[in-house]
UniProtKB/TrEMBL annotation:
This is Uncharacterized protein. It comes from the Bacteria.
Length: 123
């Protein structure tokens, strides 16, 4: 898979993942993204720790996600040591504004498809 195609697929998966968090879609988080209830509780605790509540979070639009900015893009997508693994550091937005936490994800490529794996939320 080319880097450009992989980055677009990864972005769309990340949007779907964040949507599932925002809507508390436990079934989708478990089935599609292998997020257990314990990990989901941790995600919500992290979000609440940053904001004092659970706001609606989002990624920037796809038109701006990959634009170069200092020191990195809003959706920093990179190949990892293993040629079938990609990493992403995703700047989160709340109310259309850049928020402090960065969503760290891993993408595994299998049979020309990407699978999202949640890593952690940090600053």
């Amino acid at each position: 898979m080319t880097n450009k195609l992989a980055q677009e697929k990864a972005y769309m998966l990340a949007v779907e993942f964040i949507d599932a968090i925002n809507t508390n879609n436990k079934e989708k988080l478990k089935e599609k993204f292998s997020v257990s209830q314990a990990v989901l509780d941790e995600i919500y605790e992290e979000i609440e720790g940053f904001f004092g509540s659970i706001p609606f979070i989002s990624l920037p639009s796809i038109e701006t996600a990959f634009l170069s900015r200092n020191p990195r893009t809003f959706f920093d997508f990179y190949k990892m040591d293993d040629n079938l693994c990609w990493g992403a550091e995703c700047t989160l937005f709340v109310d259309g504004k850049v928020a402090e936490p960065i969503l760290h994800l891993e993408f595994i490529e299998r049979d020309n498809e990407l699978f999202l794996k949640y890593k952690y939320l940090g600053s």
